[in-house]
Amino acid sequence: MSIGFSALQEADFDVLAAVGERWTAFAAHLSEQVEALEGVLDRQLSEDHWAGDAPDAARERIKAAVAELEQRIDPAGKAAAAIADAVEAFRECQADLGELAAEAEAAGVVLGAEGDGDSSPEFAERLAAILDRATEVDEELGARIGLVADTAAPGRTPLSAAEDPAAELTEMLASGASPKEVNGWWDSLSGTAQDALVAGSPELVGSADGVPSDARDEANRRRLGTELQNLDAEISHINEEIASAERSGRGEDAEELRGRLDALTETRRDLAALEDRVDGPDRVTGQDHYLLGYDASRDGKAIIAIGNPDTADNTAVFVPGTGAELGRSGDYDRAAAMAHDAHEAAPREDTAMVMWLGYDAPDHPVADAHSLSYAKDASGGLSSFMGGLEAANRDPAHATTTVVGYSYGSTVVGQSAKEHGLATDQIIAVASPGMNVDRAADLGIDPDDVWATTAPGDVIHVPAVIDIPLPGGDSLGMGPSPVDDDFGARTFDSDAMSWNPLDIHTNYWNEGNAARDNMAFIVTGQTDRVH
Fold first, then answer.
1. What is the rounded CA–CA span in Å between residue 310 and residue 281?
2. How far is it, in rounded angstroms, from Cα 244 to Cα 490?
């Protein structure tokens, strides 16, 4: 909603300034309460003076109250700052409007309440600029307040009703909005609102398929930095609790705390490694890294792009298989190798490479990898992510997208294409146990754009070599192999590079393997060079 002439001219910004002062006082009051409660913990409820179950419970309740109050202090301070900035800017706009009105009156020109009235083009342009600036300030205030405080907070009185983009995005995602719809909504926001949403709700923006990659990257990096800081604080706190338990002779409590400490330390190590992995450009191609998603729970997940898929000529999405998890770098290294190969194969083209570990991969090749449940659970997420890449791409009609499924990852690709559809031009299956479809034509794209390879002697086709009991005897239960003639995919060469069937299964990205060149040629559209 635009700010009108009369609204700006007649506005009393002292009222808005008073609201900001109330937020400042509220933040100060919260800080005082935190200080008082911490004083109780340090004195009346000190573990050195009062031990036992009852004081332990009281301390935990007070710590929880402190944590809740601390979470409110920062938003209150940000709300106060947002209002103070807006009041200053509004008053400047109002002063400029007063000067313009005085000049107009001296020149015999009347500025109308609904616009420029009988003013000259010069006065009209200056008036429009002032009102546009006031409108921009108002939108920025609405966005900043909406992201750091309850939008229904008493006393919030911007000049126009500003909507809450965080609530809108939450509602869209909850209602099953498509990535294309999310992208259209994102583009409808002002740049100020987008920036505020990234800063205020990074966990929401970072995981939303359809939001541009640069915004997702910034949101996830913010979130990652905050999570590492919180882990550091929690680890320090638990170390203090362990020391206290040991001093008090509470050995069982100390042992339980050590278990929690080990889990937190492992999570922090994995997240720190992820932060290092996306720090700076790729060492070979010079492309920036984009952190498009991550999750530290369970085995962990990560979606990392080398190069911006929104602007690339070619984008490949690598889906890893059994054993993939946040704490292991092997699958990122495979994606990086493909980025380097594509750069060498087509140095004049911009090729982005994405490692999509957006699912909980099977942990064990015998106990887990014969189950389709992992692929079914992952299929919706992969389909949504690919739809998001298509929606955010600036020129999808002239960009080529390829999905590369490795081992069980190819089963995920097949299941996703079969169940939900994949927004991709090409599919590559590497060392596939089967894609849970009978034919390449069942994947929803031209079979001529489906490629497959399995090196001679790969364990994926010789389970008897390592004596693995599998459903259906020698069959892995995932459907026919994509390299079978009847499947209908186009096949390409790959080298065993070992006598060991287990090693052969992991050798596809080794230096000198023909599979690497062939994948690079497919990804960059040079299929005539594939052999």
1. 17
2. 65
Torsion of CA 411, 417, 418, 420, to 10 degrees: 120
* Residue with token string 């060991």: 500
Of 102, 126, 158, which residue is a domain's last?
158
pLDDT in tens, 209-226: 999 999 999 999 999 999
What separation in angstroms does the CA of 139 have from each of 37, 145, 510? 38, 10, 53
> Residues 433, 435, 436, CA angle at the centre, nearest 5°?
110
Among 210, 242, 277, give the residue marking a domain's end.
277
* Same domain as 512, residue 363: yes
DSSP secondary-structure letter at 206? T
Phi and psi dihedrals of 238, rounded to 5?
A: -65, -35
CA–CA separation, 93 vs 105, rounded Å? 18
CATH code of the domain containing 447: 3.40.50.1820
Q: Which domain holds residue 341?
A: 284-529
Q: What is the pLDDT of residue 7?
A: 81
For the sheet with 351-357, list strands across it: 289-295, 301-306, 351-357, 314-319, 400-406, 426-430, 450-453, 490-491
Residues 267 and 306 in one domain: no
Same domain, 268 and 208: yes
> Measured between alpha carbons, how far is 379 from 373 in angstroms, rounded to an integer?
10
pLDDT for 155:
35
Q: Are 292 and 305 in contact (CB under 8 A)?
A: yes
What radius of gyration, in Å, describes the C-alpha atoms of the chain?
29
Whether 135 and 191 map to the same domain: the answer is no
Longest Cα–Cα distance of the chain, Å, equals: 97
355 has which bridge partners? 304, 318
What CATH number should be reported for the domain holding residue 35? 1.20.1260
Which residues are 430's β-sheet partners? 406, 453
CA distance 521 to 22: 63
Residues of the chain with confidence (pLDDT) below 50: 113-118, 150-162, 463-475
CB distance 37 to 65 below 8 Å: yes
pLDDT tens readout for residues 397-450? 889 999 999 999 999 999 999 999 999 999 999 999 999 999 999 999 999 999
Any idea how long the chain is?
A: 531
Rounded Cα distance between 292 and 223, Å, is 12
**Strands 301-306 and 289-295, bridge-based pairing:** antiparallel
Q: Cα separation of 505 and 476, whole Å?
A: 15
Structure token pair of residue 284 = 């070979």
Q: Please name the residue ranges forming H helices in 346-422.
A: 373-392, 408-419
Q: Residue with structure tokens 């919260």?
A: 30
**Number of folded domains in the chain?**
3
